[in-house]
Amino acid sequence: MMISQFFVLSQRGDNIVFRDYRAEVPKGSTETFFRKVKFWKEDGNAEAPPIFNVDGVNYFHVKVVGLYFVATARVNVSPSLVLELLQRIARVIKDYLGVLNEDSFRKNFVLVYELLDEVIDFGYVQTTSTEVLKSYIFNEPIVVSPARLQPIDPAAIFTQGAKRMPGTAVTKSVVANDPGGRRREEIFVDIIEKISVTFSSSGYILTSEIDGTIQMKSYLSGNPEIRLALNEDLNIGRGGRSVYDYRSSSGSGVILDDCNFHESVRLDSFDSDRTLSLVPPDGEFPVMNYRMTQEFKPPFHVNTLIEEAGRLKAEVIIKIRAEFPSDIIANTITVQMPLPNYTSRASFELELGAAGQRTDFKESSKMLEWNLKKIVGGAEHTLRAKLTFSQEFHGNITKEAGPVSMTFTIPMYNVSKLQVKYLQIAKKSSSYNPYRWVRYVTQANSYVARI
Amino acid sequence: MAPPAASQRYPSPSQPSGKSEVSDLKTQLRQLAGSRAPGVDDSKRDLYKKVISYMTIGIDVSSVFGEMVMCSATSDIVLKKMCYLYVGNYAKGNPDLSLLTINFLQRDCKDEDPMIRGLALRSLCSLRVPNLVEYLVGPLGSGLKDNNSYVRTIAVTGVLKLYHISPSTCIDADFPPTLKSLMLHDSDAQVVANCLSALQEIWSLEASHSEEACREKESLLSKPVIYYFLNRIKDFNEWAQCLILELAVKYVPSDSNDIFDIMNLLEDRLQHANGAVVLATVKVFLQLTLSMTDVHQQVYERIKSPLLTLVSSGSPEQSYAILSHLHLLVVRAPFIFAADYKHFYCQYNEPSYVKKLKLEMLTAVANESNTYEIVTELCEYAANVDIAIARESIRAVGKIALQQYDVNAIVDRLLQFLEMEKDYVTAETLVLVKDLLRKYPQWSHDCISVVGGISSKNIQEPKGKAALIWMLGEYAQDMSDAPYILENLIENWEEEHSAEVRLHLLTAAMKCFFKRAPETQKALGIALAAGVADFHQDVHDRALFYYRVLQYDVHVAERVVSPPKQAVSVFADTQSSEIKDRIFDEFNSLSVIYQKPSYMFTDKEHRGPFEFSDELGNISITPEASSDIVPAQQYEANDKDLLLGIDEKDDNKGLSSNNGSAYSAPSLENSSNITSQLQELAISGPATSATTPQSSFGFDDLLGLGLSTAPAPTPSPPLLKLNPRAALDPGAFQQKWRQLPLSLTQECSVNPQGIAALTVPQSLIRHMQSHSIHCIASGGQSPNFKFFFFAQKESEPSNYLAECIINTSSAKAQIKVKADEQSTSQAFTTVFETALSKFGMP
Q1: MHD domain location, by residue (chain A) (predicted)?
Q2: Which helix (H) or strand (E) holds A403?
């Protein structure tokens, strides 16, 4: 159950931090790892799996903000444990530095070493709780400007656009004080839902799933207890029925297939009134993860048409319609579609007066790409692409192209209808009234329409 | 600030630069060493940071060791920490200088501030310098008694570090018993957890030469200790919970109530957001219920949903780890997951390593009710832009067809693939159609008409080409232009780079010749001539062989090359069920990710000592396992020369060449064509008489695999003399136990006196030893005791290994025997039983 080394490498393979806990792995493990990941060719896969073995050394890695978080182990450890640990180390470091990127790492590497020494001793995990670690850590974080922040976590999208959100909050270190020395009393609860939908060529939903997280980040002093009330009509588990049995899910209420909870969550009254109580530890953590296959209304309807136009030409028409209320605005929408291999050129035609839209044909990957800055609920947008082929196509052109896939973010909207009814902070003083932010967001995980 | 800039200047850590910078640092540090000026700590911090930064990027800064130590006289804890980090990194290489640090570290170990005591103790133990261990014992002893839990946690791990530097010092200082008492009484959960991991490591390493350590290690698995941990599992953090759960896996419950108690205690762990906790819990549940079929199945139902949630909630890396475990369970119990097949559909943006797992899962869960949907979905992927996945998808369709569901529709779809006119799709499909025809000859009519229309010019890949050629030869009578297509291919012999394809051409030409001699004669002549002149040894040999056998007698040749074929009923599995069981036993470990048992990828020193409790139940080979495989292999071998690539998966991974384990039957190697041909001769009946003595040797050799299943054991086993002073080291035993097939399983009663004597298990060991049967490991608790024995023949170094489980309540012993020499295993078993029956007798 122990690891041998932990290190972080930049995208170019430079060591950012390196810690050897057990001195049992030969020198050069960072180079070995980087070469293997960079030039992975085994199994016909282009991408190195997160775990592989080179000369008896097991390498585990996760990629966070383009950095490689790597652990090595000699013994046959639990892979989930190590990968979970790597992810958790990244989160702890982010809690401290506020912003996680190569720059903040390099500026704070001494602090990072300090953390690593307390997180792991002789290869055994000691703690990954930001809260517990606080009492052992003495370096002050050197804060880098969040302007250069890459959106790594879903919550980062709140910093884009939406003006009512205090943009800096998610990039604030849990230990650093605001200018003026006073900490603002506030707590963030984010309901983040990633949806996966596959439409058949005739527009029917083949599969759909919602993977949701209730994420919390607390800046409350004195760690008060918090009660979080969810929908009263919330149900968990779908009996013995197949989870894809849509006919039986027409009843009202939110039905989760399954969920799990952070270890701080107490479920004493969850069965009776759907309330979670917890004393939130410092730092960011998921209160609850849930999974849902209950039918929901997909936010976008996609319609694709391919028409042959002569022997060397064809036209593709993609129509997307936003199926959500008009006071909701989706942003950063990308539509992609692989075109036939022999496509040599594509010219695009957007609708009249289209603004904030960009189109592209990626020659090397034969990929059509259509970006839209935003889509207002209820709106419909169309793209026409005229394709020129380098050779005559034979057979069925639809077998050579597609499927159409979409990515998007829809703030203040959630498809599952799961809600945080109220957020109660148990603190005696009547004047105590911290900021409470409950935010919803829906993102595409895999949103695919076959043609 | 300096560090980032510095690292850009030295992008390559191996670059032997930075010398002048290091000597600059040295000077500056020296200047600051004695200074007490205000702000000096800040300047020190900056310098220290530079040193650490150089260290990180691989520049050797060991030369400033003295200066760093001189500067360490400070109360600034941040500085101290950096200094400790530095010292820990370089002490090993500078044992003499390390002596300098002992002083200040020992002083810090007595500091008022528990933080400093802890940090100093940790650094002291991390020096890894053997000749300094004497300085560790004192501080460690007081650290273990410290009233601050932070210091105690560090001291416990310190004991383990000391053990790794000098085991004897650690044992002589009596640290393990101290840890044990802390483990059972300390109020701090992390101290307890660290004690557990330290003791597990120490006692495992000690167990190989100390009976006491062996007993202590077993005592960790006693009921009171296990419940002590399980009852307060929620006091521990998630990582320590994993540790406890791993311990609980090894516990042998006394009865079913015990099992249900544990499962009830751990039920809510399945709802944990940490995948490692959930998987460790799942493992406990699976292992506990192995003997209770119904409950075991309920466990599968229960864990399905939490695992699926974890797959979709974590990062792609985490879901991959969980999915690999789900994959294992799906392949083990496909029917339980049959209704959940949609969860294994691939998403377009998933990494290919995830897609590959999912395709295998889809193949496994396919049954009557879902095959149509699954195959429809797989056909979508066949047009995928990711060619590797497209190929895998086509193979998956083929594998499902071979599982016999809805073959009709699948054949239609496969034939549609051929119309897609993508070269890799065509190649993959041809290979599948070929396999399908071997299993379902009744489809030949439909397939052949489509296959006949494919131009061989459009197929570049050897595997696809070989498959097409095989079909041309096999179905020459149904394809009107088969001889001419073959002729065409033979005329281009020189341009055919793949030996595999040339081998197939030879065989196909022969087969075609037997069916349509006049049209093929010329082509066959050219092929044989080209083959005999071929530089490739196998091609040359085969051509020559065909030529000679034709010369001898055409009818014999036909019986040899193209005997009537039976349809293949089951294609040989790639992995033996023993290997699969081992991987299952190693659930929640890398074995599941690599799909190999740990001994295949872990080197000996890191495998840990002979894990007794791990072995319990692990090595249970179901008796059918070995007998199942043999006939399949024989059949496969029969056709092997014609179809070299039976198992694409294996070929692609290159497993057959690199595992080198005892499990790949030698006759399956591509290079041993001769053997398989000879075997073919032997099997085809009358021809046997014409074969050389060599061939009968090959025949015996192949059948040798099946000796253990020979129906009639040696009628009267000869008396076996055993070597009273036999020796075998545990590692060799372990390896043999894994590699040898199971020869015999026997159950016998143990007499009551023997059961009574078992209150001291050692007595059985001594008793068996007096019969020249030596114990290598033993364990268990009433009522179940388990022993591993070995013995050697007196005259030659031929080993017998035996596992003996004695249940004292039923007074039964179960014996499993493995032997180097299969033929005498019965004799050994008799000796063993006789010896056992005398146990307890005066």
Answers
A1: 184-450
A2: none
- The more confidently predicted of residues B636 and B792 is B792
Reading phi first (left if > 0) and then psi (alpha if -120 to 50, else beta), residue B360 is in alpha
A131 to chain B, closest Cα gap in Å: 13
Per-residue pLDDT tens over the stretch B387-423: 888 888 998 988 888 876 667 778 888 888 887 777 8
Grouping H, G, I as helix, E, B as strand and the rest as coil, residue B147 is coil
Of residues B19 and B177, more confidence is placed in: B177
Q: Are B610 and B738 in contact (CB under 8 A)?
A: no
Tokens of A337: 């579609």
Are A264 and A278 spatial neighbours (Cβ–Cβ below 8 Å)?
yes
Choosing among A70, A80, A101, A209, which should be mutated to test the B contact, i.e. which has the most B CBs within 10 A?
Answer: A80
DSSP secondary structure, A70-115, as one string: EEEESS---HHHHHHHHHHHHHHHHHHHSS-SHHHHHHTHHHHHHH
In chain A the first and final C-alpha atoms are separated, in Å, by 48
Chain B CB contacts of A338 below 8 Å: 385
In three-state form (DSSP H/G/I as H, E/B as E, the rest C), the secondary structure along B797-816 is: CCEEEEEEEEECCCCEEEEE
Q: Return the residue of B nearest to A123 by Cα.
A: B157
Instruction: Determine the residue of chain A that is closest to B6 in CA distance.
Output: A106
Omega of the bond leading into A403 within 30 degrees of 0 (cis): yes
DSSP 8-state secondary structure symbol assigned to residue B713 = -
Using CA atoms, how far residue B539 sits from B459, B532, B616, B673, B691, in Å, is: 21, 7, 49, 10, 20
**The length of chain B, given as a count of residues:** 842
By Cβ distance, the residue of B92, B243, B353 closest to A45 is B353
> Tell me, what's the pLDDT at A179?
54
Judged by CB atoms closer than 8 Å, whether chains meet at A138 and B81 is answered as yes
Quote the pLDDT of residue B616. Answer: 34
**Is there a contact between B322 and B279 (Cβ–Cβ < 8 Å)?**
yes
> What is the mean predicted confidence (pLDDT) over B253-267?
92
Q: Which residue has the tokens 């699954």?
A: B374
Over pLDDT 70: what percentage of chain B? 83
| Residue A207 DSSP one-character state | E
Residue with tokens 């444990």: A81
What count of residues does chain A have? Answer: 451
Q: Which residue has the tokens 């007993």?
A: B215
Collapsing DSSP to helix, strand or coil, B418 comes out as: helix
Which of B190, B318, B586 is the closest to A83 by Cβ?
B318
Task: Judge whether A445 is closer than 8 Å to chain B, CB to CB.
Answer: yes
**Residue B444 class from Cβ within 10 Å (0-12 exposed, 13-18 middle, 19+ buried)?**
middle
Q: At what angle do helices B499-515 and B462-474 cross, to 10 degrees?
A: 10
Q: How far is CA A123 from CA A5, A94, A382, B317, B321, in A?
A: 7, 22, 56, 21, 20
Q: How many CB atoms lie within 10 A of CB B782?
A: 12
CB pairs under 8 A between A and B: 255
For A193, nearest residue in chain B (alpha carbons): B313
Q: What SS3 class is residue A387?
A: strand
Residue to mutate among B78, B313, B607, with most A CBs inside 10 A, is B313
**Pairing state of beta strands A254-256 and A234-236?**
parallel
Q: Write down the pTM of the prediction.
A: 0.76
Would you tell me how many other CB atoms lie within 10 Å of the CB of residue B199?
25
How many angstroms from the chain centroid is the CA of residue B402? 27
Query: B305: Cβ–Cβ under 8 A, 6 or more apart, which residues?
Result: A237, A257, A258
For an interface test with A, the pick among B350, B385, B393 (most A C-beta atoms closer than 10 Å) comes out as B385
Across the interface, whether the CB atoms of B345 and A259 are under 8 A apart is answered: no
A172/A72 Cα distance (integer angstroms): 31
Grouping H, G, I as helix, E, B as strand and the rest as coil, residue A185 is coil
Q: How far apart are CA A61 and CA A419, in angstroms?
A: 35
